[in-house]
Amino acid sequence: MNDVILFYSTNVALKMEKLVKAGGITAKLIPAPRHLSSDCTFALRFDRRRRAAVERILHNNEIEHAGIHPLDRF
Predict the structure, then answer these.
(1) Which domains are assigned to the chain?
(2) H or E stretch including 44?
(3) How far is CA 36 from CA 3, 52, 73, in A?
(4) What is the rounded distance in angstroms from the CA atom of residue 9 to the CA atom of residue 7?
């Protein structure tokens, strides 16, 4: 099962992707699912089992995001 983080900014999404991968977490930028947000362009998909680690990275680096959501279809 996967979760996604939604981002308003492409630059922030790219930064978070680098931070997550540097932390040894597999992640992939994908187009933001329209059923989750029409305002966001990109989402970062990652394994739900790594959510706590991803949330720490978000918090420690003060990354602005539009939310973390379950994504079971991808």
Answers:
(1) 2-71 (3.30.70.260)
(2) strand 42-47
(3) 12, 21, 12
(4) 5
- Residue matched to tokens 């308003």: 8
User: Please, what is the average pLDDT of the chain?
Assistant: 92
1: buried, middle or exposed (CB in 10 Å: 19+, 13-18, 0-12)? exposed
Residues 6+ apart with CB under 8 A from 65: 5, 6, 7, 8, 12, 16, 58
Predicted confidence at residue 64, as pLDDT, reads: 93
DSSP labels, 46-73: EEGGGHHHHHHHHHHTT---SEEEEE--
